[in-house]
Design brief:
There is one protein chain. The protein has about 600 residues and is an alpha/beta fold. The chain has 3 domains: about 230 residues, Aminohydrolase, N-terminal nucleophile (Ntn) domain (Glutamine Phosphoribosylpyrophosphate, subunit 1, domain 1), CATH 3.60.20; about 180 residues, 3-Layer(aba) Sandwich (Rossmann fold), CATH 3.40.50; about 160 residues, Glucose-6-phosphate isomerase like protein, domain 1 (Rossmann fold). It has 17 helices and 24 strands. The strands form 4 sheets. It has an 8-stranded antiparallel β-sheet with strand order 3-2-4-1-10-9-11-14, with helices on one face. Bound molecules: 2-deoxy-2-amino glucitol-6-phosphate. 2-deoxy-2-amino glucitol-6-phosphate binds next to helix 8.
């Protein structure tokens, strides 16, 4: 995680760096800092908290600098742990994790060097200084050879005050040229603009930003050709448009997003290649994290039910270390809003190396995942700013359900049409307003349960994740039938239990668990499209959902749970857009 930026050009660097950091704040907001050359000396300003705390640095005059917004891995969120880290004539910003930092720190300590922070990143600046004998590039390359782990680095050296040096290993980094300057950043939106050419660094590559040129090198210092990134520039300034929070605004977009995504995969430039892989697939493996993993679970359920193709959803961070079996004719679907999640990228890479056809389901066209994949199935959710994923989840579901329905029909099987889903979402969105009245019962809950069976269980998992993320209330998503095997012990008088009941064949079974919880004092909140469940005597309150095919019901039912998390978060005085400890894009292991 963390966002890094750098600039060398004709304009004052500080405003460019601060504007770039604002655009990268979704990567972390524990602390922020910039380093700018004023003549040959470096001015460093760092603050705990958000990028806006750095406004005082905007007036710095230098034209070369680097900046950082942090999501803490090593060392608490604090000013001393904020980047840039400086040692001797060097300063750097880092995104990633240096796995051998402890051993390297010991070496530095043995030389009598002292450290100002608890970070792994500070070790890197010491290492560069130790490798330096007058050649800036050679020092960074030599230091990089000793690093284990992941890094995107932007480095300054006061012997070369016109230069920013960059390095990349397993953490995203792009560089750009145009509008009178040279740029580097963790992610394209931070540097994209009219007339700015953008290039991606590959793993193990280095770039030097100096004067009017960017030069690219391999680890031996030999020039390598640039990898241009094609993108269409769209001024994409996220606005709340009258909503109190981005999360609420993004939820309001769900019906339109769902309408767009049901057939989105047919637009993929790689559709004919993807279609071949899909029709020939003997099994499907989905890899993803967090909310995207929950979309994967829902999709796997639909693939098996509608197409009778074996399909498993995998938590990417587990898949990558379990020596996965990837038999011939495996289709791997890597699902990721950002396309930058480190675990998802690593899992996708493994599946591909082991022979799977890799399709990326992602919202970001120019992400690392799109570069890795054989085919890109782009979700059309638009930019999602709130850390808690909402509309991107519904977009992933609709795209994946669209693929499942297509495959089912190609196999001569029936699949319900997706055409009425957007309308159902619109109705669910207005029904979801009823949960505002539920918040008082959740505010001080010791624990909250979300239960369901079949596809409803996956909705429950996502509802629970949303609640945890933005309200900080302990909560669990549970298969309704499992409650009695242990978790029932946690039910006390007034424990909120949210029952998701849309799978007709399983409704009675889910209700068994509801009865058991109710009998032990739980307060039951029903989210259902079955009038008899909504009206049942156990339900303290309920939201009646519009009807929709039960194979696809998570895309509709989840809207109520997203709204519940949102209203409880606001009632608890939290900022639902920027939950503590979390970042939008998780680019470290
Ligand atoms: C969702 O609300 C979370 N912020 C998180 O679980 C997220 O879905 C996960 O980190 C995966 O991100 P990705 O979709 O960008 O890969």
């Amino acid at each position: 995680m963390c966002g890094i930026v750098g600039y060398a050009g004709k304009d004052r660097a500080a405003p460019v760096l601060l504007d770039g950091l604002q655009k990268l704040e979704y990567r972390g907001y524990d602390s922020a800092g910039v380093a700018v050359f004023e003549g040959n000396s470096l001015r460093i300003v760092k603050k705990k908290g958000r990028v806006k705390e750095l406004e005082g640095a905007r007036s710095l005059c230098g034209r070369v600098g680097i900046g950082h917004t942090r999501w803490a891995t090593h060392g608490a969120p604090s000013e001393k742990n904020a980047h840039p880290h400086a040692y001797k004539q060097f300063a750097l910003v880092h995104n990633g994790i240096i796995e051998n930092a402890d051993a390297l720190r010991e070496e530095c300590l043995a030389r009598g060097e002292t450290f100002l922070s608890e970070t792994d990143s500070e070790v890197v600046v010491h290492l560069i200084a130790a490798c330096y004998a007058g050649d800036f590039g050679a020092a960074v390359r030599a230091a990089a050879k000793r690093l284990k782990g992941s890094y995107a680095l932007a480095v300054l050296c006061s012997d070369f005050p016109d230069t920013v040096l960059c390095a990349r290993q397993s953490s995203p980094l792009v560089v750009g040229k145009g509008r009178g300057g040279l740029f580097v950043a963790s992610d394209l939106p931070a540097i994209a603009g009219e007339g700015v050419e953008v290039f991606a660094l590959a793993d193990g590559e280095f770039a030097t930003l100096r004067g009017e040129e960017i030069s690219f090198f391999d680890g031996e210092g030999k020039p390598v050709p640039p990898h241009a990134v094609a993108y269409r520039f769209r001024e994409d300034v996220p606005e709340k448009r009258g909503y109190a929070h981005f999360m609420k605004k993004e939820m309001s977009e769900i019906p339109a997003v769902m309408a767009k995504n049901a057939a989105a995969f047919l637009e993929s430039p790689a559709f004919s290649s993807f279609r071949r892989a899909l029709l020939g697939a003997e099994r499907i493996q989905i890899v993803a994290c967090g909310t995207a993993y929950h979309a994967g679970l829902c999709a796997a359920h639909a693939f098996e039910k509608l197409c009778r193709v074996p399909c498993e959803a995998n938590i990417a961070s587990e898949y990558r270390y379990r020596d996965p079996i990837v038999p011939p004719n495996t289709l791997c679907l890597a699902v990721s809003q950002s396309g930058e999640t480190a675990d998802t990228l690593a899992a996708a890479q493994i599946a591909k190396e082991r022979g799977a056809y890799l399709a990326a389901v992602t919202n970001v066209a120019y992400s690392s995942l799109t570069r890795l994949a054989d085919a890109v199935l782009q979700t059309e959710a638009g930019r999602e700013v709130a850390v808690a994923a909402t509309k991107s989840f519904n977009a992933q579901l609709m795209l994946l359900y669209g693929v499942a329905a297509y495959l089912a029909r190609e196999k001569g099987r029936k699949a319900p049409p997706l055409g009425a889903m957007a309308k159902a979402a619109r109705l669910a969105l207005s029904a979801a307003e009823e949960v505002r009245g539920w918040t008082a019962h959740f505010l001080a809950a010791k624990s909250v349960f979300f239960v369901g069976r079949g596809a409803d269980y996956f909705t429950a998992l996502e509802g629970s994740l949303k609640l945890k993320e933005i309200t900080y209330l302990p909560s669990e998503g549970y298969p309704a039938g499992e409650l009695k095997h242990g978790a029932l012990a946690l039910i006390e008088e007034n424990t909120p239990v949210v029952a998701v009941v849309t799978q007709k064949g399983l409704a009675e079974k889910t209700m068994n668990a509801v009865h058991e919880a109710y009998a032990r004092g739980a307060k039951i909140f029903a989210v259902t499209d079955l009038p008899e469940v909504a009206a049942c005597k156990e339900a303290f309150a309920s939201v009646l959902l519009p009807p929709c095919p039960e194979e696809y019901s998570p895309a509709v039912a989840v809207i109520v749970l997203q709204a519940l998390a949102y209203y409880v978060s606001v009632a608890r005085g939290n900022d639902p857009d920027k939950p503590r400890n979390l970042a939008k894009s998780v680019t470290v292991e």
